[in-house]
Amino acid sequence: MAAESLSPRLPVTDRTRHRRLREQGSLDRAELEAILDAGFVCHLGVVAEGRPLVVPTVYGRDERQLYLHGSVASRSLAGGTPVCVTVTHVDGLVLARSVFEHGVNYRSAVVHGTARKVTDPEEKLAGLRLLSEHAAPGQWSYARRPNRRELAATTLLALSLEEASVKIRTGAPDDGDGPDAELGLWAGVLPLTSAWGTPVTDPALPPNTPVPGHIARREGTRHG
Amino acid sequence: MAAESLSPRLPVTDRTRHRRLREQGSLDRAELEAILDAGFVCHLGVVAEGRPLVVPTVYGRDERQLYLHGSVASRSLAGGTPVCVTVTHVDGLVLARSVFEHGVNYRSAVVHGTARKVTDPEEKLAGLRLLSEHAAPGQWSYARRPNRRELAATTLLALSLEEASVKIRTGAPDDGDGPDAELGLWAGVLPLTSAWGTPVTDPALPPNTPVPGHIARREGTRHG
């Protein structure tokens, strides 16, 4: 974690160059960060015995790196493995006048790099804290923190945020001024939103156990 | 699309054997189908120049195969490429007494196989129909269907549903009867739900254009 910060403009590489037209590619690092901050589950891709493997896992980040819970893919991650981490938010269905113009409003970030297993206990604790606070803010102070044995049993991966590709599609269908507009069909967007529900107390506890404020106040707020 | 149907019990292979304990692996094909049917965006993993690439795309299915919109990964998919397709639904945060026991309630399906580019126009049209009706039921009859030029411009992939791994975690944290229960902390689940919102009419149309029933009635229904 060097002191110098990453470029606010994402670098264009063979892997991150945008090739398709309909979606908007962004080279703005702030957009990358906003997409990462809006979620907590990513899809981690590795090559295992020559074949792709894609598994969901949780993540957190600091200015320079993504931290990933790596146990799900730990067999395939022995040292310096190339990985691809994708975070996608689906914001709605784009319902056009023709099936061909149908699509999805979404925000996605695709991070390319080489995963490093975090072994230094101090960095591991700091990384797990980022991961924990990213998914469940306030729990790091509230719940019991990992002990030495638990730390050792956790696989944490770090991945530089340097090389990433961001794509965003928003708004109405694209065929509102084309020949299909003459069809007189309805067209538009069906939005999809995700929100936190009412906390469900562990049945092992008395049912009237008060829900801590840092959890209770997420109810009804939007996720993603 | 042979007539014989796939086994209702998912086969256990080197790639699909469940190794971790905390999640529940399922070998029930009906669970696989339920997870696939609850979503419409998957994460498609391929190996591109020796490195993993994970991109979101839309899908549909029949009894035997997944159909995927393949344009996003088309450069990396020249004939008989091994792919991994993962569909994940995040159902909630598992907030335990210790950070170590924190987790996610989720349902995921990981399909392994070799993608085939669909070239037969009849199968392509049928596959696109499955894909379209999966994401936006009713639109295949309502909107203008793909013409020959549009069909040719669409990359559709087919992937057998034979080899797949299903994992599901539900319910309360696991530390309600361990030593951490003595800490007297609240523990439980913070549910996450996804729902369709109010349709937004394309601004190119008069604002009072009626929303067709097959779209309007999805408002407020749950997704995922």
UniProtKB/TrEMBL annotation, chains A, B:
Organism: Streptomyces hyaluromycini
Pfam families: Pyridox_ox_2
InterPro entries in UniProt: Pyridox_Oxase-rel (IPR024747), Split_barrel_FMN-bd (IPR012349)
Spans annotated as Disordered: 201-224
Protein name: Pyridoxamine 5'-phosphate oxidase family protein
Top-rank taxon: Bacteria
